[in-house]
Amino acid sequence: MRPITEAHVARPGLAVVEVAAADDETALAIQELLAGRWATAPADRTTREPGEPGVRLRCYLDVRQDLTS
After folding, report:
1. Per-residue pLDDT for the chain (69 aa), expressed as one digit of tens each?
2. What is the pTM of this model?
């Protein structure tokens, strides 16, 4: 995965979430749960790191925006 840059966390309320899961379906389900609560820049696919188990996914959240109100 590419490095996290200052722009990703430039202000309070911005967050980067990295998910490690056994499979694509689990990782994407977790991302969907996060997107249901906060504004999210979702990943469109997972990645696999050679020599590491499972899959990885990174998404970007803006927790300043409460979508449930």
Report:
1. 677 777 666 688 888 899 999 999 999 999 999 998 888 888 889 999 899 999 999 998 988 875 555
2. 0.77
